[in-house]
Amino acid sequence: MSDTATQTQMEHAPGSFCWIELATTDGPGAKKFYSELFGWEGQDMPIGPDMTYTMLKLDGKDVGALYQKGEMMKQVPTHWASYVSVTSADETAAKAKALGGTVVQEPMDVMEVGRMAVIADPTGAHFCIWQPKTHQGVGIKGETNSLCWNELLTNDTDKAIDFYTKLFGWKTKTDSGATPYTEIINGEEHIGGMMKIQPQMGPIPPNWGIYIAVDDCDAKVEKATSMGARTYVPPTDIPNVGRFAVLSDPQGAVFNIIKLNLQHHESK
After folding, report:
1. CA 195/CA 154 separation, integer angstroms
2. Is the CB of residue 248 less than 8 Å from the CB of residue 241?
3. Dist. CA 204–CA 198, nearest whole Å
4. Count H helices, E strands: the chain?
5. Would you say residue 127 has pLDDT above 60?
6. What pLDDT is attached to residue 240?
7. How far apart are CA 232 and CA 107, in angstroms?
8. pTM here?
């Protein structure tokens, strides 16, 4: 990590999404898939006797990380985790409990790089919090082939809005479309959204998902499926926003890609 600490790091305001991390059943396979799909470079770091933490980089900047789940995490599904930056992991975890959330993993130090905890919101969706020390989080965001949006799918948007606005001080703005969509605003920045799980989505548990910005949604879907990915939602236009798709990697972790409309991108 020492080399990342010396880089000019991107600041992440408290309450903003600062890191994404893949827990997978096949570290080398996942690394190969995402490297080929997004041009990410993997940098393996040993973090235990049989454990490797792979930093994923784009143009030398951190875009996220992945690791292979060991015996102790067998029951944890293969998934992309979203991290929110906080000033104090302990205070945020205590506040989350008081607001009806569950602390799944109590605050713990990650070497000298930061302090983290894993929390389940009152609707059952898991997320992580990150109190940065030497590592702020991603060094690139909102650019092509990097994280650009985080999205909560939940069975109870009212309960979720109540919890997160009190926990992180987020503001929200809900449109009144056929399927209402709630935008999340941290300070002045539009950082993500949330929506109710729809019947056509199938039996999925509440979860936080990630969106990676791409320059061509259709071409990326084609490339991903040729490498063993599964398409859950084929390339679909969102009026005035962009074109997106929902995929899962060969190990089963779900992620979203989106080609943002230029004017939307600039207004963000």
Report:
1. 6
2. no
3. 9
4. 6, 16
5. yes
6. 87
7. 34
8. 0.93
My answer on whether 82 and 174 are in the same domain is no
Q: Which residues are paired to 54 by β-bridges?
A: 44, 66
Tell me the per-residue pLDDT of 47-88, one tens digit each, with 9 for 90 and over.
Answer: 877 789 999 999 999 999 999 998 878 888 899 999 999 999
Tokens encoding 238? 């969102």
In a domain, 261, yes or no: yes
User: Domain for residue 139, yes or no?
Assistant: no
Domain around 245: 147-267
Residue 160 and residue 172 in contact, taking contact as beta carbons nearer than 8 Å = no
List, for residues 48-58, the tens digit of each pLDDT value. 777 899 999 99
Question: What does the chain come to in residues?
Answer: 268
10 Å Cβ neighbour count for 53? 18
CA dihedral sign of residues 73, 75, 78, 80:
negative
Domain co-membership, 217 together with 259: yes
